[in-house]
Amino acid sequence: MAVTSPSSPLSALTLFLRPNRNHRTLSNVVITAASIRCFSSPSQQMDDQRQPETTKRVVVCGGGVIGVCTAYFLAKKGAAVTLVEKSCVACAASGKAGGFLALDWCDGGAVGPLARASFNLHRALSEELNGPESYGYRPLTTLSVTITESRSSSPSGDSTIPSWVDRPARGPRTIGSTQTTAQVHPQLFTTTLLNTAVEKYGVDVVIGKLEEVRVEEGRVGSVVLEGGRVIESDSVILALGPWTGKFEMLASMFRVYGLKVHSIVLEPKEPGAITPHALFLSYHLQGGKAMDPEVFPRPTGEVYLCGMSAEEEVPDDPEQIVGNPESIQMLKRVASNVSSHLAEGEARVKAEQACFLPCTDDGVPVIGELPGVKGCYVATGHSCWGILNGPATGAAVAELVLDGRASIVDLSRFSPARFVGRRKVKV
Ligand SMILES: Cc1cc2nc3c(=O)[nH]c(=O)nc-3n(C[C@H](O)[C@H](O)[C@H](O)COP(=O)(O)OP(=O)(O)OC[C@H]3O[C@@H](n4cnc5c(N)ncnc54)[C@H](O)[C@@H]3O)c2cc1C
């Protein structure tokens, strides 16, 4: 998201991301894959379980933040939910994002009301699920800062700039307060929510790849997984993130493409020196090129940096997504020009990674029932704000599926019906 126009945390299609966007150890609350019930072999199928006549059977496909939030709210409202994930829960952008949340940065656009509702829902969820302990939820102050690479290493002396930002930094501006900006650890948030959904509301998790949604007389009947397993369902939610474009039924109707973005996670030797300030940088390389990386200290003591985007083909397997070495190197260079605490030798590199933003052609998420396919819903295209907008998206879809309309937010602006006539739906 741009410092000047803070409308999205990762709005830039430039070399770097634009700014649009601890240590208590959380290791004792990390949720492991083993604690989530996964059914990967046909012999372990739960399909035969008889549900009461009135209980709606819903299959949610995609174990990113959007699918997990949707499964959580559906199950909480009483649906019998099966979540299907082809690789691992939160293995893609939902596990590797910054986790930055903003109340009002999307105001004025289509996403504004969704973002406001979701920011508030994050706060409520944090109270319900002990967010500060479970997944590093905390309000924080957010600054935009200009950094120009130079030989001089003296700090700016400006008292608005946190003391750990001890390289030359200029023009600090407070662009978010503890009332309007916050953060979560995205992977812990997603897994905490799913674990609660499994343990408290009976969600079943199936590791398997969705291959087909079976439609009979214009209505969803079942989904078919790779290998032939069939799961009967009354409704299906497709939350496939940037893989939406690889699922023919949806790709024939609208385009969702992936924008690859890089990130690193550093563990400074002195985590106590890093204060809770998110930084949206206007970063000027020697030679004049400007970039917009983002820096998010976490209550885990880690410091997360992201930037360096490129439109690239999304590989089938999320595990095959790796960062380009030059982009990772550039992020390390940025880190050392922000703070001596983040320079080589002063911080351990915990992760070097990349993942894909799910982007639509009109920049607006696609949320709603597919025209002509009763019971089949889509929730995707959240671009750089999926962690923020996951909860309200999930709650709204749950209402749409079970009550026929969403009250938490008006979903009409997000309807896939807006693409009708542009591409033909294949069922
Ligand atoms: C570097 C970076 C930083 C970001 N920072 C922020 C931030 O600070 N704040 C914010 O709000 N947002 C941020 N975002 C955006 C956010 O991460 C995404 O919008 C969000 O994670 C998208 O969630 P998703 O569930 O739609 O997709 P994903 O997380 O990509 O999940 C999709 C899932 O579907 C599964 N899947 C795909 N196809 C199939 C199939 N056929 N069968 C079964 N499963 C399938 C995949 O394996 C995957 O697990 C950031 C993104 C990036 C890349």
Automatic annotation (TrEMBL):
Pfam families: DAO. Residues 150-163 have a biased composition (Low complexity). Residues 148-169 are annotated as: Disordered. Residues 57-400 form the FAD dependent oxidoreductase domain. GO terms for cellular component: cytoplasm. Keywords: Oxidoreductase. This is Oxidoreductase TDA3.
